[in-house]
Amino acid sequence: MLDRVLPRTLLALGRTFEKRALSALHADGHLGLRPSHFAVFSYIGLGTVRVSELADRAQQTQQGMGKTLRELEQMGYIERAIDSQDRRAKAIKLTKNGRKVAEHIANTFSAIRKEQAEQLGQKDYETFVALLDKLVGVTGLETPAPFWK
Predict the structure, then answer these.
(1) pTM for the whole thing?
(2) Which of 34, 83, 87, 119 is deepest in the core (most CB within 10 A)?
(3) Which uninterrupted H or E stretch holds 50?
(4) CB atoms within 10 A of CB 116
């Protein structure tokens, strides 16, 4: 049964987070943001990053990531500068407004996690999250978490 395949279930859970965050962002006046922009906000972190690194983290082509970055730059959420280590490359970072959006997303995600914990019960939710974290660890999956520490 395709509707019970774990990857589809996990994808649906992830999309729920993004849809709720996007709805909250739109309600707060960030009307130009789209689901595709979450690839940047998920993987950019608070420092600077090159387009190639960001594309690799998000598992996208550099061309696709470049298009998304141009959109976010035009909206004032990211800025580009010459990379101090490689003058041919661009260093990308969040602007003050971009950091506000990232914080808004994090707050929405926290609210959703709290709701889910209430729905499942705190103990079951903590077990669920711990098991997912363990699975990520033992399988060596890459997640956005390291970029936001």
Answers:
(1) 0.85
(2) 83
(3) strand 49-50
(4) 16
